[in-house]
Amino acid sequence: MSDTPAIPAASCVLVSGGSRGLGLALVERALAGGAKVAAFARTVTPELAKIAADHPEDVFVGSVDMTDNTAVGAFIKEACAKLGPLDALVNNAAVGQDSLHVHTSPERIGQIIETNLTSTLLLTRAFLRHAMAKSGKGRVVMVTSVCAQRGYAGLVSYSATKGGLDAAMRALAREMHGRFLINSVAPGFFASEMSSVLGAEQLSTITRRTPTGRLVEPDNITPIVGSLLFDDTNINGQVITVDGGGSI
Ligand SMILES: NC(=O)c1ccc[n+]([C@@H]2O[C@H](COP(=O)([O-])OP(=O)(O)OC[C@H]3O[C@@H](n4cnc5c(N)ncnc54)[C@H](OP(=O)(O)O)[C@@H]3O)[C@@H](O)[C@H]2O)c1
């Protein structure tokens, strides 16, 4: 029997991109798990604002562009002043892509990498420095994608950022020596603003290639992220794919 205690369940979770889509569902899941929640996006939607208004003691939201490192730092400071120390981070915010690599401008490639990869690594660094100084333990979940594991046309830079996050996640899990459980959840395609660029034909092709015969829904993903935030799973440094088996 080891006398090393389990990492406690998350009590105060920061969700990036919590304004809509999967991020909004993850804010609700973290709240339902009994945690306080801080969430930001560039635009605070009425749905996110309502959650904050309904839970004034437990939810803190803000309008922050995650590529603005100073604004991210200020948000973390304000969130802690309001909710107490953060001990979990869900890196959900990202921008998508729908253009062949040869037709994607250098500026757009830079934006995708800056938002999805660089800013996520900087947010993770800021969170870990804060949490190491406070609770000393915690949990990080990266929302990545099956695009990091299989090739999808039109998603070259996006895929590079998600593969980069999966690789960084494993290295970070080593660096943290088990004091922080760090994992990725890699969804297959699900309906959202990001995937709205996919046409009916593309969606039916993906569905046909999925053994379970149906696309993923946010409700399939939130229990997995919830488990990584709250349960004593001892899962660390792993990519958990939620895609109905489409990528096997
Ligand atoms: N949809 C899919 O098929 C699919 C499949 C696999 C993985 N994923 C991943 O799942 C996660 C959620 O995707 P989703 O489909 O729910 O996307 P979505 O509806 O487009 O939501 C993305 C969220 O990120 C925020 N965001 C984007 N850029 C930001 C920035 N610079 N600063 C702060 N927040 C920013 C957005 O808010 P603002 O625009 O207001 O900033 C929004 O809250 C992403 O990591 C995505 O890569 C999605």
TrEMBL record:
Q: Which residues form the Ketoreductase domain?
A: 11-193
Q: What are the entry keywords?
A: Oxidoreductase
The answer to keyword Oxidoreductase applying to this record is yes
One example GO MF annotation = oxidoreductase activity
Q: Which InterPro entries match?
A: KR_dom (IPR057326), NAD(P)-bd_dom_sf (IPR036291), SDR_fam (IPR002347)
Q: Could you name the domain of life of the organism this protein comes from?
A: Bacteria
Matching PANTHER family:
OXIDOREDUCTASE, SHORT-CHAIN DEHYDROGENASE/REDUCTASE FAMILY (AFU_ORTHOLOGUE AFUA_5G02870), SHORT-CHAIN DEHYDROGENASE_REDUCTASE FAMILY PROTEIN
Sequence similarity? Belongs to the short-chain dehydrogenases/reductases (SDR) family.
The name on file for this protein is SDR family NAD(P)-dependent oxidoreductase
Species of provenance: Leekyejoonella antrihumi
